[in-house]
Every structure is written in C-alpha cells, then in structure tokens.
C-alpha cells in the first residue's frame, strides 16, 4: 500500500497509473448482467449470449446473461426497471412486455418512464402464411374470401393477446371484414390444425421449418419493412393498416442511464452487427440485422405502445 501511494505521489496532477482509472469511476469496472425474459434457446436468448461474448471481449469485464423467464418477460422487465441506472444491469427488449402487456395488466413498471432504450439490433419476419396448396395465392385472395364469405376465414396466432393477433385483427377491422380467430393452447397445436386444414391461416414467427419443407406459402409481412429474403411480400405498413408491428429485439436498461454508457453500447452493437459470426447466428433464426440508435428506437417503441393501446381498446381485447 505504501509503495502504491509513493508511486501515485510521483505522477503529475490529473494523471493516474494504468489500470487504476477503472476502479475510480471508469465504465465498466465490474461485471455487467444482461437480463433475458425467456428461457435458454430461441432468438432472444441466442442474440443476448452473442452480445455478451462480444461485449466481454471489447469491454474487458465479464458480461453474463441472466435468464428470468415468466409472465411474458414482464418479470425480467420489472427487475431491470428497479436496478441502479449505472450500466451494470441491462436487458433484451422485445415488444410484448413494453408495448402490449402494460395495457392488459397491472405491472410494477411504466414502459415509458422506467427504461432507457439503447438500440434496436435485429428484426424477425412475422408473416401471414397458408398451406402451399391453399386456395389463397396472395394476401388479396385472403381479403377477397373474407369479404365474400363473412366469418368463414379461420386464422390464428401464437398468443390471443400478442402482437400478431392485435395487428391482424386491427387490419381486418379497418377493412370491415368479419373473420374467425381461433385460439390454441400452443403454437404446435395451431400448426397441426393448419396442416390438417382445420384453420386457413396463421400469423407468427413459427413458419421457417414449414417453409423449408415446402408446406406453406407466405402472403404478407406484419411489420413495416420488406426484410431481406421476403422483399416480395406486402407489409402491413405499406398497406396502410393501423398497427404494423415489426418483431424486433433491442438492448435497454433502467431509466437514467448515463449518455456515455448508452453511446458505448450503441457503438458496440454497431460493431457486432458487422461481424460474420453475428450474421450467421441471425440466419439460423431467419432474422436480420436492423440497427436503430437510442433516439429513433425510443420514438418507435413509444409510437408502438400508444398505437397498440388504442387498438386493444378499440377491439375490446383487454379481457
């Protein structure tokens, strides 16, 4: 200790020894935790672990993934909302706990006040799809059928109160179309019903294996952008529907994160998105890089939150 004090005394004012700055307020100087609201496996967890590995190399401190599944990822969001805004507790941001669940249940956080949204980094297509041999060769065919035969179009999504159900129901309502939504206990059951012809259409991210096997035909994309590999699909945004929702993933933290911390993670994510390993990972999950910085990402989530709430109330989906 005396040697260290003696060495410090020899340094000019304002300078410190190498390796000491990190313990005097430099970020980061200790492990960073990224909280994931889902179990291991799947797009959310896989991207979180890739981010953690890359950040650990760049930042020089351990970056660990903490899985906190349950209640549609609202448990994880609640944990992060209550964390200190010092950059050492972050979370993966997905739509439901921030733009949908707050309209449907009482939660221990406010999505617009209790978080800092750092950046969006990936998007996944959420198409409307039918069997390959279906009578519907296009999205317009679906609309024409629903118009000619009110109530006969039977369709489903992964969750009765999830984004795909709300967005698609809002589209049909805007067009004045009467259809039949069929809820299932699991998406596996829903896909079984699609394959045996019990239902006509699904809107979800669960299509890749069926598409690879030539069993389904994609008709439209629920979001705003024509994503790579699906440029031929019309999007809900282009069609002028009231709630185009892009299934996307981002990084966030508690409200009040220092601007320097936000900037550091924005830059780190941009570097990661340019690596071959990252793009290979996304290809496994039929996802694409979709960077959006903090200001634009925050504005997007606020708009989605407000628009989703309006449609939930309009469609009476709050129960």
Instruction: List unreliable stretches of 5+ residues.
Output: 1-24
Helix and strand string, N-terminal first? HEHEHEHEEHEHEHEHEEHHEH
Structural class: alpha/beta
- What is the fold named in CATH at topology level of the largest domain? D-Maltodextrin-Binding Protein, domain 2
Strand order of the largest sheet: 2-1-3-10-4-11
Question: Which architecture of the largest domain does the CATH hierarchy give at level 2?
Answer: 3-Layer(aba) Sandwich
Question: Which CATH top level class of the largest domain fits?
Answer: Alpha Beta
Helix coverage percent of residues? 25-40%
Give me the count of strands: 11
Distance between the termini: 64 Å
Shape: globular
| Strand residue content | 15-25%
Helix count from the secondary structure assignment? 11
Taken together, the total number of domains comes to 2
Radius of gyration from the alpha-carbon trace, in angstroms:
23 Å
Global mean pLDDT? 91
């Amino acid at each position: 200790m005396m040697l260290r004090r003696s060495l410090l005394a020899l340094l000019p004012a304002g300078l410190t020894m190498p390796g000491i700055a990190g313990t005097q307020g430099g970020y980061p100087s200790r492990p960073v935790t990224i909280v994931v609201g889902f179990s291991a496996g799947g797009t959310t967890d896989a991207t979180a672990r890739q981010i953690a590995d890359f950040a650990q190399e760049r930042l020089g401190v351990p970056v660990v993934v903490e899985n906190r599944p349950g209640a549609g990822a609202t448990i994880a969001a609640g944990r992060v909302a209550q964390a200190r805004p010092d950059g050492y507790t972050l979370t993966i941001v997905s739509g439901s706990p921030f733009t949908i669940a707050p309209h449907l249940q009482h939660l221990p956080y406010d999505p617009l006040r209790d978080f800092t949204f750092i950046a969006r980094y990936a998007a996944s297509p959420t198409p409307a799809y039918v069997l390959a041999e279906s009578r519907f060769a296009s999205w317009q065919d679906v609309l024409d059928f629903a118009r000619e035969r009110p109530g006969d179009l039977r369709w489903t999504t992964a969750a009765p109160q999830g984004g795909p159900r709300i967005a698609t129901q809002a589209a049909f309502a805007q067009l004045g179309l009467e259809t039949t939504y069929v809820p299932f206990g699991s998406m596996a059951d829903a896909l079984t019903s699609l394959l045996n012809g019990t239902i006509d259409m699904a809107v979800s991210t669960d299509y890749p294996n069926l598409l690879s096997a030539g069993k389904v035909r994609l008709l439209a994309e629920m979001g705003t952008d024509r994503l790579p590999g699906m440029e031929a699909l019309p999007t809900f945004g282009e069609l002028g529907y009231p709630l185009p929702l892009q299934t996307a993933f981002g990084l966030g933290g508690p409200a009040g994160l220092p601007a320097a911390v936000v900037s550091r993670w924005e830059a780190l994510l941009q570097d990661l998105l340019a690596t071959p390993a990252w793009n290979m990972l996304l290809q496994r999950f039929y996802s694409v890089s979709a960077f959006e910085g903090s200001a634009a990402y925050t504005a997007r989530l606020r708009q989605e939150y407000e628009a989703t709430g309006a449609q939930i109330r309009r469609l009476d989906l709050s129960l």
